[in-house]
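Researcher: For the annotation table, I need structure tokens for Choline transporter-like protein. Please keep the output clean. Sequence:
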Amino acid sequence: INCVHLIKMLRGIVYFAAWVHGDPRKVIYPTDSYGQFCGQKDTLNENKTILFYFNILKCASPAVLINLQCPTTQLCVSKCPDRFATYVDVQASYRYRPDQWNYFRQFCKPGFNNPRKSVAQVLRDEDCPSMIIPSRPFLKRCFPDFSTKNGVLTVANQTTFKDGRGKTRNVTDLREAANGINNVLDARSVGMKIFEDYAISWYWILIGLFIAMMLSLLFLVLLRFTAGVLFWIFIFGVIGIIGYGIWHCFWEYDHLKGIPGSDLTVYDIGFQTDFKVYLQLRQTWLAFMIILCGVEVVIILMLIFLRNRIRIAIALLKEGSRAIGYIMSTLFYPIVTFLLIAICISYWAVTAVFLATSGEPVYKVMANQTLCKYANLTCDPETFNTTNVTKLCPGAQCTFAFYGGESLYHKYIFIFQLANAFVFLWLVNFAIALGQCTLAGAFASYYWAYRKPADIPLWPLFSSFGRAIRYHTGSLAFGALILAIVQLIRVILEYLDHKLKGTQNSFTRFLLCCLKCCFWCLEKFLKFINRNAYIMIAIYGKNFCTSAKEAFFLLMRNVVRVAVLDKVTDFLLFLGKILVAGGVGVLAFFFFTQRIPVFAQEVPMLNYYWVPLLTVIIGSYLVAHGFFSVYAMCVDTLFLCFCEDLERNDGSTAKPYFMSASLHRILGKKKLSPKKA
């Protein structure tokens, strides 16, 4: 219970600090040089939703633009420029072309309407930009409208432009920024196409996931009656699917022989956003074929060397299927765990955004003169004009730079983010622990029922969930706490490794690598111990430490059975996931590539057929994992109960075994005491 109170208190402190100081508007809206939000309702910038940069040449890269630290004046505008123009030309023609002045003036500072002011003073004070170039909004910011024409970089189909300072420049002067921006825009184009594919294929994706769910349910139901036969069927099914994949890869590899360009390598063509290009290369299909051949050989070798252990595991699979058959509601409990984890993720994300936006506006001196000693120093916009900075550095301005702060709270925002991440890990592990304990309690009630199914309690899943919430929250929270601490240390080690990646100190890299490996192993070990400790908690109701100790020594006394039954069963269930995901994936591949004549007219027109295909494959695997995780928990619980049954009872009338007759025969006992009616 103390652990539960601790997690509530820590969560409350972090959330309160984030709520009081955070402001998500800093993420939603861009901020101009005066610290005002673009597009915020009930302000002067309500209809000005886009951020415009006076001189984009001063921005080194798109990352600088997105981080709002470009050393040029930034204004909120209602739309981006759609033409080339310079202040010099507009000022010279404002008397007889007032429309040009009125258009250009909307990109000047608010209230500026003095075309008689000298060009030098306007540019010095940055009242107006020296030039505007055709742009388009992206991430609510005006980016130059870059494009390529016949392999030449252009802006609005032009290769040169006037910079407003008496020079004609080539658009290649923007290449440093253009390269990054084009990558971002290409990613945006690919993202839009992917979104379109999801928009027109979501219905078929849901059908594919529904088929995966039905296959998973059918697989679990059939295990109860034909575990052995079904196992060999899906083993040969997996081998057959992989074999078909090998044949298909070889056919594509042979079919591309002699076709111009097919002998190029992936390195020759580089990165392409159109992945169909890679499928025109023989090297791609050769790599696929080699990978599938390796997987095929590994599976066949494992089947040869584990054939005796597999026969033992089949008996436990039958018993687990029988238990799930009596408690079918357990198959849908992963939905509860998924919802709890979704709530944890939402809580973490909202709190992280509030913490990240809890800084105050920081203003810095922006000077046109490179020798100004006040450049990049912090300033106060309210008192800036009364200082001597403008006299020593003509044209200097006090403009918004970023969000931050010098207070004690702002110095420890990173610590609050770590605390938020720790709470997130703790809550997620607690949700998983609650699910494992609940399922273990339900399946333990099946095993310890003397007469099955007559002695199985009513609503075993709900009863187990109630016991876990009422009596075991402290133990579950403590187990989740230990695991969360180790996971947080792993996160910190990954962060340090990322920061020190450029260091040449070999010892530091070696030490970090060793620490990461050790804590990875420790996390895996703790997950294994916690899982079995939760089973013992569900059976006996003891605290976490006692349950973990008893579970560990019980497993050590039956270490051979652990290796034979538990791990082989995990392997079999993994093959089941591969069969479900692979089968649905092959079906989806034939459907989305219009290779099923009956449904050829129903297939939507897609930009990338691999988008819904990968979604269906990954989603099918996750659906199968959800159902089979229940099954794995059932097998682990029955195995631990079986080991405990063997140690507590001897098969006599006074101490009869609680295991089923079939499990009793398979696991080596010659005689089972008759059970009383």
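Researcher: And a one-line annotation?
Model: The radius of gyration is 33 Å.
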